[in-house]
Amino acid sequence: xxxxxxxxxxxxxxxxxxxxxxxFLHSLARFPGPLYHRASILPWAYLVFRGTLAFQVVExxxxxxxxxxLSPSHLGFSDPQAWKDVFGVTPGGENLxxxxxxxxxxxxxxxxxxxxxxxQHRYMRGLVAPGFTARSIVAxxxxxxxxxxxxxxxxxxxxxxxxxxxxxxWFNWTTFDVICDLTLGDSLHCxxxxxxxxYLKFTHVFSEYSMKGAVLWHLxxxxxxTRSSNVSVCWETGENFRWHQSALGPQEVIGTANLFMVxxxxxxxxxxxxxxxxxxxxxxxxxxxxxxIGSTFESDDQIDLDxxxxxxxxxxxxxxxxxxx
Length: 325
Ligand code: HEM
Known about the structure:
single chain, two-stranded antiparallel sheet
């Protein structure tokens, strides 16, 4: 072997030995999964980059059962109880968020409770919890309904000429405006302008690249996440921030506001999009739901949180969508 071939030979030997270790000696070696997933993280990383991991995971569970090895040190569970067992917040329990994914978005401090350690996480959850009670949500109903009304107005205005609309886009604008208003005290007027605000564009890019960044990080390249220069929107409007400001430092306020905007808007918009998709592709369910709503309300302005919460068919459809989606 020539000296120039030595690095390649060493790398190859290291790769093969680590694959053999992961297949036979790793502490997760007894869990089932395809050989190439058990041997290396590369197949998992490839699926994340292609955006097809979720589909592949379903197939793997169908083939290998409720627990499947997705990469050498990564297990997938199909039973929803696993989420509670591993990540559930229990009194005195640890915050087990995976550090490779949940990292600070600003300068390395625990700037949101995703990146916080267990004690700080518990403290910050306690601060924001009053904003998420049923009573609190009812108190914010008027504010939320203003955006729902604006959405309906915009959709009705645009649907009269028979044009095709991207509901996913409209739901994203709505949920983003609502969450931004609830979090910072003002929306960025996506619905009003029928336009994607720069922050929303950034959020999508951030979500995608933070995931890919985590994968690259995992693969050994020290690629950090997008940093604070991109969160200036919150900084500017942050003075409207409604939480107990004195209890949180500015970095934590910015970090937590960002977290709420990312965590609360896209998730809710995707759920609404799924819901709409399932309804329009299942006309039987759609007509039963339309009947229930039509026989309960005579006009739009009668629709409120309290009454919709007691519609059995609507709530059954939402629960079904959550399980399936
Ligand atoms: C249908 C809508 C939603 C879905 C499907 C959803 C889903 C999730 C999931 C799966 C997690 C756990 C993530 C993890 O720990 O890895 C999570 C956490 C979280 N979500 Fe949501 N979410 C939704 C709506 C919202 C809304 C409206 C908000 C806020 C306004 C929000 C704020 C959060 C926060 C702050 C966390 C972190 C909790 C913690 O670390 O203790 N989510 N969400």
